[in-house]
Design a protein that fits this description.
The complex is a heterodimer of chains A (267) and B (304). Chain A has 267 residues and is of the alpha/beta class. In chain A, 33% of the residues lie in helices and 27% in strands. Chain A is built from ten helices and ten strands. Chain B has two domains: 60 residues, no CATH class; 239 residues, MetI-like (MetI-like fold), CATH 1.10.3720. Classes of the chains: A alpha/beta (267), B mainly alpha (304). Chains A and B meet through helix 2, helix 3 and helix 6 of A and helix 9 and helix 10 of B.
């Protein structure tokens, strides 16, 4: 697959090499190779249980927080192995931000939601400016500028999700991981988040997990298709089927499974 | 209802597979509503009866002089001041010591400790301790605080009494704290970690504030239990007659329940009336204390 995308390693934000994740004794996803080019949107698609969210959580070491989770293989961020001793997960997560499936603003004011990350990471500049810049960056400033002291939970679902994106970009990460960010949103809010992603891509690298194939084809530059097969223990094991430019995955995929999935025949 | 009953038959006239029996199910609804109403009514009736009899007996002798006087052998001159002040001292010690200890232990067990056989053993023991009779804690307090640590506590003092009650209510606070932490959704923790927060930053800034209303509910229950306890304080030897005000942690003391118990035990009817007055004072202190706790709880809930 690297053959079809001719790039040098400095052009990649994240590279995954033979990554497998297991929970306890169950292998959840096996032997994933994935190179994420900078300033692009990469979509991870596939049926339920194919391990796409699991792979996403590897990139900021959120799997560390799940008891019994084990990640094998090599993942590099800007060329550095994120599991090496020199890399601190707390520092890594500042550079690789995350937006979750369900909007999860802190039960605090809109202002505090943005300021928290900046404060713990020792932001030295003007906090009011940062809050405004982040909220503008997430295209929500005009809706909340008059109620920054109100609770983040008072916003609608779509606004909450954009608040969470604003919170993520406030600490100026390089990569933003999005785990089905629109699955709990209505179509109009979804469209707003998708438009936002196109703007964010100028500054950030975005990896998005999505169930929605139209969303993947509309928004992403590259698409990775994951599938799952039943294991002997009765569980499911995910694996990467194909990874390429989005138009190739959707129009002339090299694998039969991909063709069937993107044409809506299963999943 | 008849129409609903007939619907399945209309859909499948040959073999009705559904018999909704709507009227029978509604009847069950009404029976359970009536039972629940009855249970509530009995509880409220008992409470109202209790409060009314105490108010009738006690209001007559409850005046400023009663609150500001020392105990006396004559009922009409007897007052409750030392017991009231003693209770305030004791509750101060209990709240001040039990909150950090109980919340700290609950925090450790829920957020930091690994889930292994040892923590499970600790968990079972804490739950068991919540059911140990309070007199046992009194004997423990007598052996430990009054005798063993006499150099610190100066014997049968406010400090000994307060610490004994702390032991008594710690299990309640620890269990309530753990439940409160468990109720905080993981998505909130992830949100913090994903911004590069450390474990302590996540707990201090997000988990603890979200859990605090639940913790305060546990504190209210625990302090309400402590304020009414008599047996453990009698066991450690709290005085029944104190003609002076406690001056510090190492003073001798008495508390409202002991004073009330003492008056109730006397043969003269006048003392039974001022015992009722004492109960009114005790309830007022309890209500004030719970009011403060509810106020703190609501302040933290408002931002959610």
């Amino acid at each position: 697959m690297q053959d079809t995308i001719v790039m040098t390693s400095t052009d990649f934000a994240i590279q995954a090499e033979k990554v497998s994740v297991s929970y306890g004794s169950t292998l959840a996803v096996k032997d994933v190779f994935l190179d994420i080019p900078k300033n692009n949107i990469v979509a991870l698609i596939g049926p339920s249980g194919c391990g796409k969210s699991t792979v996403l959580r590897c990139f900021n070491r959120m799997n560390d927080l799940i008891p019994g989770a084990r990640v094998e293989g090599r993942i590099t961020f800007n060329g550095q192995d994120i599991h090496s001793k020199q890399v601190d997960p707390v520092q890594l997560r500042r550079q690789v931000g995350m937006v979750f499936q369900r909007p999860n603003p802190f039960p605090k004011s809109i202002y505090e939601n943005i300021a928290f990350g900046a404060r713990i990471n020792g932001y030295q500049g003007n906090m009011d400016e940062l809050v405004e810049r982040s909220l503008r960056g997430a295209a929500i400033w005009d809706e909340v500028k008059d109620k920054l002291k109100e609770s983040g939970l008072s916003l609608s679902g779509g606004q909450q999700q954009r608040l969470c994106i604003a919170r993520a970009i406030a600490i100026e990460p390089e990569v933003i991981l999005m785990d089905e960010p629109c699955s709990a949103l209505d179509p109009i809010s979804t469209l707003r988040v998708e438009e936002l992603m196109q703007e964010l891509k100028q500054k950030y690298t975005i990896i998005i997990v999505t169930h929605n194939m139209q969303q993947a084809s509309r928004t992403s530059d590259y698409t990775a298709f994951f599938n799952a097969r039943a294991t002997e223990q009765g569980g499911k094991m995910g694996y990467l089927v194909e990874y390429n430019r989005t138009e190739i995955i959707f129009q002339q995929p090299s694998q039969q499974d991909t063709q069937e999935y993107v044409s809506g025949r299963f999943g | 209802m008849a129409v609903q009953d007939n619907q399945p038959a209309a859909l499948d006239p040959a073999a009705p597979m559904f018999k909704p029996n709507v009227s029978g199910r509604y009847k069950l609804d009404r029976i359970f509503a009536a039972l629940a109403w009855g249970a509530t009514a009995i509880a409220i009736a008992v409470l109202v009866w209790l409060i009314l009899t105490i108010l009738i007996d006690g209001l007559g002798s409850l005046d400023w002089q009663f609150i500001t006087s020392f105990p006396s052998r004559k009922a009409e001159r007897a007052g409750i001041l030392p017991a009231l002040v003693g209770t305030l001292w004791i509750m101060g010690v209990v709240a001040f010591v039990s909150f950090p200890l109980g919340v700290g232990a609950g925090l450790f067990l829920e957020e930091f400790a690994e889930d292994n056989w040892f923590t499970q053993l600790v968990e079972i023991n804490i739950s068991n301790l919540a059911g140990v009779p309070s007199i046992i804690y009194g004997l423990l307090g007598l052996a430990a605080f009054v005798r063993l640590f006499e150099s610190v506590t100066n014997g049968r003092t406010i400090l000994s009494g307060g610490l004994t009650l702390v032991l008594l209510i710690l299990p309640v606070i620890i269990v309530a704290t753990r439940e409160a932490f468990r109720a905080v959704p993981d998505s909130l923790r992830w949100a913090g970690y994903a911004l590069g927060a450390t474990k302590w930053e996540v707990i201090w800034n997000h988990v603890l504030p979200s859990a605090l209303p639940g913790i305060m509910t546990g504190m209210i229950l625990a302090l309400s239990r402590a304020i009414g306890e008599t047996a453990p304080l009698i066991a450690i030897g709290a005085a029944a007659f104190i003609p002076f005000l406690p001056e510090g942690l190492q003073s001798q003391f008495t508390v409202l329940p002991i004073q009330i118990y003492n008056w109730v035990g006397r043969p003269q009817a006048e003392f039974h009336d001022i015992a009722a007055s004492g109960i009114i004072v005790l309830m007022a202190v309890l209500l004030t204390m719970n009011g403060v706790a509810v106020y703190i709880r609501n302040r933290f809930q408002k931002t959610r």
